[in-house]
Amino acid sequence: MTDDLDLDARLRALFADGDFDVPAPAGTDSRILAGARRAQRRGTTLRAVTAAVAVAAVGGGVATLAGGLGDANRTRPARTPAYCPMFAYWNGPDGRAHLYTMYPSPGGTVVDRTTIPSPGTGSTGATSDPTASGDPNVDTTIIVPHLTPSPTGSPLPTDRPMPTTSPGCAWPEGGTWFYAPATPAPWESATAP
Amino acid sequence: MDDEFAAFVRMRMPALLRFGHALTGNPHDALDLVQTALERTGVRWRSVHRDGRDPEAYVRRAMVNSWVSRWRRLRRESLVAGVPDRAGPEPDGLLEREPLWQALRELPPRQRAVIVLRYYEDLSEAEIAAVLGVSPGTVKSQASKAMATLRRALADDPTITTGGRR
Question: Are the Cβ atoms of B39 and A22 closer than 8 angstroms?
Fold first, then answer.
């Protein structure tokens, strides 16, 4: 009973005294309003992906642009990510497009494209289950546990160029991978790197 | 978009982000969660007002439910086990070093939500049940499990068992 009272008091103290402030990146409120406007225009339905996307060169292949993902079978919920989730489209060796979604987590590491397994290979310890995402339109979703948001670019590996379009976010800019920035909606205005 | 909604976003976002931080355990998920909930609220802003609901309570409820359902979805997904890039700096701040906070982050989202709603939002069991859309009995059992887990976690911390922390 004493333990319960102690834990109760400690929880109260934690939530009363803890610093839960979150420094929102500049323009967050505007992005929210813009996102709400877009969602309002679209209603509550999902929308088709219309972005042209960059695709990867695999095994020394040639990077190309693919604009064919805007078909009715590939949709994403209408929302603008708040903080740098990354969406990578990759045209795999099987000729299909694969969407990867990577979410940031605090205090970690920038993901490298080599950590993203080819579908079905499970390289670098990740599994690539076509049904894992729960979304029949997404082949798999990989959650990268340590993706570093960094206003300065550090600790982004210095041997990679730092994109300038996304203040507050750090992500690798590979020549063959395309990482869509959060602003504007990545699947809305994606362009080739 | 309604000017009133825009004013609401600008005025209440810091508080909602703090709640999101408490709920999710990190500021980055808080940002994403708040944005998602506010966008959904913006779409329904007029009906929220028309129905006489408290918009902030509506947003917080949306955040809680979105967080719990997001976890249900994500737990089916794969984690990358090894990331070859070098690690970033460890999170700093008193909160991050607080064993109780670390233990809270290990709780399943629904249990954590119950604790946050109880201790951060100061809601009653009945109110928490309403927010989560579950019975008060479920709230009670989730709280009990969460407290048991926290007690076990803190028992491993010598500064806790000796009463060395607050």
Answer: no
**Quick one: which H or E segment has residue A75?**
strand A75-76
Q: How far apart are CA B150 and CA A53, in angstroms?
A: 46
Smallest CA–CA distance from B33 into chain A, residue: A82
Interchain pair B88, A146: CB under 8 A: yes
A174 phi, psi to nearest 5 deg: -85, 155
From residue A101, how far is each of A86, B6, B31 by CA, in Å?
Answer: 6, 29, 17
pLDDT per position as a tens digit, A84-115: 334 443 333 333 333 344 433 333 223 333 23
The string of pLDDT tens digits covering residues A6-64 is 889 999 999 888 888 887 777 778 877 877 777 776 553 322 222 222 222 222 222 22
How crowded is residue B111: how many other Cβ atoms within 10 Å of its Cβ? 22
Interchain CB contacts (distance < 8 Å): A and B: 205
Nearest to A186 by CA among A83, A117, A95, A105: A83
b/e sequence A105-128, b meaning 16+ C-beta within 10 Å: bbbbbbbbbebbbbbeeeebebbb
Continuous H helices in A2-153: 2-17, 28-42
| Prediction ipTM score | 0.79
Eight-state DSSP code of residue B90: P
